[in-house]
Amino acid sequence: MQGGSHFRPLSGKSDPDGSSGSCLGHGHVLIIDDEASIVEVLTEVLVEEGWRVTGRQSPPSLDEVRQLAPDVIVLDLLFNGNHDGLTLLESIRVDLSMVLTPIIICTAMPNPQLLLTHQSAINIVAKPFDLDEVVSTVASVAQWSYWPPIQDC
Fold it and tell me: What's the angle, vertex CA 125, arms to CA 120 and CA 130, rounded to 5?
């Protein structure tokens, strides 16, 4: 991001779990989208802003999501025309260990606002999206899940 960023950048190195960034600076974001370009761009931008990021191009299992223990999830709902993201969202919301994890829906679906109440999504970013909007939304919802606040390395 250009000038005035208030997050400390990370090294951008890859961690053993496939995530980018080697410092917990602002927490861990899991990006799940079937479009490789979206995963790559969001990973690059969020790492520059100080986040540790793991990207997946297909919905991981609930066990894998638990293992990754993200602080925020950015989730597309449609994967190759299937509602696999919606299935994962439903699974996360009934899992007691993950029920409070903030989830940002990033989708081109019509009327995704219905999901805010129906599936307990925290926020929605419509595709095509503005990168600054995604970054600010991640930072905003992440604040709700940290107590005590995450410290810089």
Answer: 160
Give me the residue label for tokens 């990168």.
131
Question: pTM, whole model, 2 decimals?
Answer: 0.75
pLDDT, tens digit, 9 for 90 and up, residues 22-70: 444 579 999 999 999 999 999 999 999 999 999 999 999 999 999 999 9
d(CA 90, CA 83): 11
As assigned by CATH, the class of the 28-141 domain is: alpha beta
Q: In this predicted model, what pLDDT tens digit does every residue of 27-36 receive, in sequence order?
A: 999 999 999 9
| DSSP bridge pairs for 29 | 53, 72
Residues 6+ apart with CB under 8 A from 51: 7, 10, 21, 25, 26, 27, 28, 29, 138
How far is residue 126's CA from residue 45's CA, in Å, rounded to a whole number? 18
**Residue 6 main-chain phi, psi, to 5 deg:** -100, 10
Cα 34 from Cα 115, distance rounded (Å):
20
Delimit the domains of the chain by residue range: 28-141
Q: Are strands 72-75 and 28-32 parallel, antiparallel or unpaired?
A: parallel
Q: Residue 104: which residues within 8 A CB-CB, separation 6 or more?
A: 72, 73, 74, 75, 121, 122, 123, 124, 125, 134, 137, 138, 141
